[in-house]
Amino acid sequence: MSNTILERLHHLSGYVANYAEDHKKAFVSSCAVVTALVACLPRVLQDYRIYMSYGENGSPLTIRGWLVSTVILRSLSFSDLFSTNMYERSDDKRTWLDESWPRKARDSRPTLGPHPAPQRQLNQIPSEASKKDLKDRFYALAKKNEKLVQLKPSFFEKQTESMFLSDRVQASQIAADTAREIAHVHSTGDHSVHVTLSPQDCKKVIEAGWGQRHPLDGVKTLKYMLGAMISQQYILLYAPRNPEEISVVLDVVKASIGYMTESREVQGLDRVSS
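The chain above was modelled as a monomer; its predicted structure follows.
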């Protein structure tokens, strides 16, 4: 009888010891997870604050919008935003930018936010006067070419007026893929500009330091998600900070109109110097 009791006590003590050891491992694991989360929390919060700082755009300024951009879209994006190899290999050698463009290279590239969408600058933001001048001249350029383009709310940005092909202009394949949208100013934020250019003009703009590629360009999954895809010739032009830079950027917008409408009759604006 006493032996049976001793055996049961022995089994019970073993069970208690094993239970304590198992819970010790779980406790240590939990502590490790909590420590990792606490260590990452400042970076996560900073990433969220940057996302919310972009201003109204085509991506909702909500936790859900931030998660979609941070988790899903980042997984689809690429990082080599200055490569021009694909443009060099293109059989399309047409260009709409003058041989003399640009008059000079941009002095430096701005820092961009870490999110693929929206694609925005974090520094080198223009003054309010330069922002207004850019928008006024962008819309004036559209009006001067109203036989080729029209202004409508941007398909991609939602919050700003964009240049689209006029209804009377037949869309090329690239124009059809981008919902006929040509160019838009990010007028609720940094005032950078998105355009679609010929392959050779893309190469010129990137190598001269006036812009870069979009991290989601050429991702076909977006066409199923959004109804349109971002072309590999969809270029971000850095926000212009003075009249001279505005003229340089509008030269590129004019080239975008020409390429997307397949026209050599695009009317430009008079240049404004500083």
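Residues 2-52 form the longest helix (51 residues).
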